[in-house]
Write the structure tokens for this entry.
Amino acid sequence: MTQTETQAVTQTVAQPTTQTDLMIELKDVFKVYDMGGTDVAALDGVDVRVGRGEFVSVVGSSGSGKSTLLHILGCLDTATAGSYLLEGQDVTHLPDRELSRVRNRAFGFIFQAYNLLPDLSALENVEQTLLYAGIGAKERRERGVRALEQVGLGDRLRHFPSQLSGGQQQRVAIARALINNPTLLLADEPTGNLNSEAGDGILEALVELHRAGMSIVMVTHDPRVAATAERRIVMQDGKMVKDEAVLERTKLGMTTAA
Ligand SMILES: Nc1ncnc2c1ncn2[C@@H]1O[C@H](COP(=O)(O)OP(=O)(O)O)[C@@H](O)[C@H]1O
Ligand SMILES: [Mg+2]
């Protein structure tokens, strides 16, 4: 490919061009489930590359394979066939223990359900992750406070989940995902349980994190949510049918308060 052609491709799909920029490379990935004799291909030959600092959305209807893709990206699951390079390391066939080490080092996860522990304060929920990493109380506290401040919850440290709105609980979950300084944030329907105003708040937080340099892959079934990212991958029946730059990004905070 000539230099000009390379640039043209970069502009169309915003794909990384140099090896150092490349964070994730999935090649011809299949995930096949055996459903009592019939094979169901949740992923059917998917190629994805994600570069450092990108904000990518994965959109498609229910059952198209979005969550399966995210689970494989996040090393929560492994592919039936194909290969996965994470920052140049082949993680395709790592044993479970290695995989969980990679997972804890590299990724921050946000799910539709906030999964906060009800008996712990916001700060304790966020700090929890660092306990397992063997980090001392003082540093845990400092990092926890910083992460909560980063998502605008510096004044809610002692609140319990039941004393926070849905949007605030999801912010705590984002802070928890950030606490280990992940290289990539993976979000599966992060606004799925929220009204559009609270959802926009979460998307704004993600846009802000991306602006500060965070790499993000976000799964959603909602085209409006998907268009907050700068690049969009469209899934259909386990296949990637589109990989394109988002030309008109969703303007957040434009929904009327319900
Ligand atoms: N653990 C599983 N066992 C069997 N089939 C599964 C499993 N997980 C997902 N599938 C199937 O794979 C397809 C893709 O699922 P999923 O990735 O959850 O889709 P999406 O997140 O886009 O809604 C669906 O047809 C689903 O039923
Ligand atoms: Mg899903």
Q: What stands out?
A: The chain has one domain: 3-115+181-257. Residues 33, 35, 40, 42, 60, 62-68 surround adenosine-5'-diphosphate (ligand 1) (CB under 6 Å). The chain has a mean pLDDT of 90. Helices lie at 3-13, 66-73, 96-106, 122-132, 137-150, 166-178, 196-211, 223-226.
